[in-house]
Design brief:
InterPro entries: FAD/NAD-bd_sf (IPR036188), HpyO/CreE_NAD-binding (IPR038732), L-asp_N-monooxygenase_NS-form (IPR052189). By secondary structure, the protein is α/β, with parallel strands linked by helices. The protein contains 20 helices and 15 strands. The longest helix has 22 residues. The protein is globular. Bound molecules: flavin-adenine dinucleotide (FAD).
Amino acid sequence: MRRRPRVIIVGAGLAGTATAIRLLQFAREPLEIVLLERRHDYRYAGVAYHRDGNPWDHVFNIQAGRMSAFREDVNDFVRWANHEADRSGWSAPWSDFTFVESGPAPRRIYHDYLTDRIAEARLEAYPDVELVEIDGEAVSLDISGDHAEVSIRQSPSDGDADGVMPTRTLTADHVILATGMELKEPAFATEVLDHDAFIRHPYSTDGVRRLLAIPAGASVVIVGTVLSAYDSVALLLRQGHTGTVHLVSKSGTRPRTYPEHHEHGVVRLPAPTTLFEPYQDRTEFLARVQAEWEAACDAVTTEHPDIDRLIVTERVAKAWEPYLPRVIEQIPTGELRQLLQEFSTQIASLRVGAVLYTTSIVEHAMESGQGSVEFVVGRIDKVAPATSGQLDVVVVTEDATRVIRADFVVCNFGREFDYTHVDSPLWMDLLAKKLVTPHERTGRGIEISSSGTPLRPSGEPIEMLSAIGVMREGDEIVRNGRTGAFAFNLAAIKNHSIVVAAHVVERLELDRDGRAALHRSLTADEATHDEFEQAVAVEVKRLAARSRAARERLDAQLVGLLRSGRRIPAATAEQDSRLIRVAVNRAAVRRLTDISVTPRQLRRQLGIANDEEAGYS
Ligand SMILES: Cc1cc2nc3c(=O)[nH]c(=O)nc-3n(C[C@H](O)[C@H](O)[C@H](O)COP(=O)(O)OP(=O)(O)OC[C@H]3O[C@@H](n4cnc5c(N)ncnc54)[C@H](O)[C@@H]3O)c2cc1C
């Protein structure tokens, strides 16, 4: 018999790592946290940050100051990069670079950052709260009574002489799915997937090697015109590319460049009330959207003249998030899916920008008049081999069909958001067993509860499962109005990791009776008492504390507070005291994950800002 509960986290990219860190921080009782990863090189990195797929020139999509893994400690990443990181082996210009909040940072160092932060969390965990790293792929999951069984296919290095991978089963009390993006093969390129001139995965080790080997004068077509396409073209230009590069996409959307000292901010705007009216048809709805959008942009421009014009759309998109769930309710399901399909790239580009480091080199190449970078707006119908060994890219534009002959075609991400189409053995198994349900309203990701629990087709939550990251895209859209990349990027993952880790710890620390009692009682009168408020403030600090000594001190303070409370009854039984803790913890988690404020505002609001930040306006 196991002596302590076990949680298995499937996937050790950002989402899995961030959740493991939170579990190590939050658990007060013995716990085994198994962090399972099918690709050794992706551990503590995932596809977005692993070293071999990210040359030094690939910088974060967003500013370095927004890459902290801790929402309540916005400067953590920049502080780490400037003062803690081991820079031996770093390439110029980064080896003696001073990182600033609004500036760039190379993606590949995120792996070191996460590695350091999980090591710290491990060291600072309570006794018998332990992290176990296992390499292997979860291929199926069974729920049996009060535990789950995960079948794990061992890593290729463990295979026998015939390449057959052994499988083993691990039992767990809770399983967290943090499997990241699912890839979609491009239908237009089926003939050339294995062609030497077709680079399908520009973020893979092989893809980067092939990109770097492209001759300077070669003609290149890049599929896509937003952030990852910019990564590829910037990489080519930085190594002196002189041949023509075509960037092709249906919408022609390009990333906006953030102004130099850009900071994230939230403005309050009136609700776009006409969008709450019944949906008639797409044209009529889009006309209302346009009118409301222009009015909102005008309001920001006149009422906040200090806000740079370049980020007005970002402020409006953020301010609208709380209203969007009500707007979305009006839109019939089929229409909603169509609108997301058609506009999600544009929405993302209104909401997020890119740093100058990435965009300036591309824009310079476009403006230099040498014609080295050209944008093409159109749908790629087909990529076919030409007899010359090159590739023909057939693009249907508004008024013609154009064939671009290329020496190389780089195909950036194609993400499969419809989980009925993904080909991962684990997801196919979960769907077949009805342990998860495709998201009905958006067709993106799966149905999920507010605490991150997947729902069966009947709506019943699978209590011992949680999900974090991109599979929650549809839910983020309809529940929180988070659209575009914001439905599943770092910002969303940070919040998911807090909510899921707190939920798992609560679940494992309360027995079944305790959970039943919790549903009947408590929480109703929370926040009405001073003692409760004080307790929540201490709990927020405890959850945010990275050192065990600080957590122990805050824990003792919390216990003292709850015992001395007049309106919170002194715990007469162990169970009562646990239930009160749960109510306090839930309120603290809600505050830590409040997305209506920026991380910096959040710190001040929670009373955890340092002196320098407290004076920050
Ligand atoms: C190229 C790229 C660049 C990006 N840059 C940024 C950026 O600069 N800033 C930002 O905020 N966001 C960025 N993003 C968005 C990005 O998706 C998130 O920031 C984040 O990395 C996603 O983390 P994740 O853990 O959900 O997914 P991943 O990082 O993909 O991790 C999932 C992990 O699960 C593993 N896995 C999957 N299935 C199994 C299984 N069955 N068994 C075991 N292991 C499994 C995978 O191997 C993988 O390592 C970028 C995305 C991409 C693709």
